[in-house]
């Protein structure tokens, strides 16, 4: 049985890069988690990755946790 995407199920239209909860989609080393770990479909995973990269560029999310 296929798992339903969290963003599709809750009608999330856009993933905002200013959202402080983006860090829960990062590993302990600061890498973006995979689709299996986040539970997103392919299109929402791409927009999540783009939002995290924008947040990193603006220093809202750390690159690494050393």
TrEMBL record:
Question: Which InterPro entries does its entry note?
Answer: Ribosomal_bS18, Ribosomal_bS18_sf
Q: Which UniProt keywords apply?
A: Ribonucleoprotein, Ribosomal protein
Pfam families reported in the protein's UniProt record: Ribosomal_S18
Q: Where are the transmembrane segments?
A: none
Q: Which GO terms describe its cellular component?
A: cytosolic small ribosomal subunit
Gene Ontology molecular-function annotations? small ribosomal subunit rRNA binding; structural constituent of ribosome
Q: Does the keyword Chaperone apply?
A: no
From its record, what is one biological process in GO terms? Answer: translation
Q: Which PANTHER family match?
A: 30S RIBOSOMAL PROTEIN S18, SMALL RIBOSOMAL SUBUNIT PROTEIN BS18M
The record's similarity note reads:
Belongs to the bacterial ribosomal protein bS18 family.
Name of this protein: 30S ribosomal protein S18
Lineage at the top is:
Bacteria, Candidatus Berkelbacteria
